[in-house]
Structures are given as C-alpha cells and as structure tokens.
Protein: Prefoldin subunit 3
Amino acid sequence: ALLADFEVSEGIYSRAHIEDTDSVCLWLGANVMLEYSCEEATTRLQRNLENAKASLEVLVADLQFLRDQVTIMRVTIARVYNWDVHQKRIRQAVAPAKDS
Structure:
C-alpha cells in the first residue's frame, strides 16, 4: 500500500491510501491516458527522465554559449563606442585648428 499526497486543484491537496495494483495509468498529455503494467510504467518513466536530463544538459550548454555571446557583444559595443568617442575628439581637436 502507498500513502500519497496529490494536488486536486490549485492550492488544494488531498491524501490517498492506494492499495497494491498490477497496473497504473500514465497521463501522456494531449488528453491521452494509457494503462501500463508497473514494470512498463517504470521503464517508460525512467526513459522519460533520462531524456529530460539529456535535454537539460543541452539547454544548460546552450545557455552558457548565449551568456558568452552576450558578454562578447557587450565588449564589442563598448569598444565601438570608445572608438567613436576617440574619433569625435580627434575631429574636435582638428576643427579649431582649421578655424585659426
């Protein structure tokens, strides 16, 4: 037997005493629920967990790549801005010399 707490509705929880059973129903999404033996359900859920962990690793790597790219972009923008400021100062220094 299993004692389980589950969410009935948002913020509303209930406790259930579940007797031993030979099968379970898994919610697959898109209004689809299938009945599996306990072994099949365990295998399916384990495979889903492994896939989710692999996807998480890829997403974390992609996020790190994007962070690096954002840093590179910020440095590049700062360099272009500084170059522009330097060019304006050169033009301003040359302009009064021409007026004399």
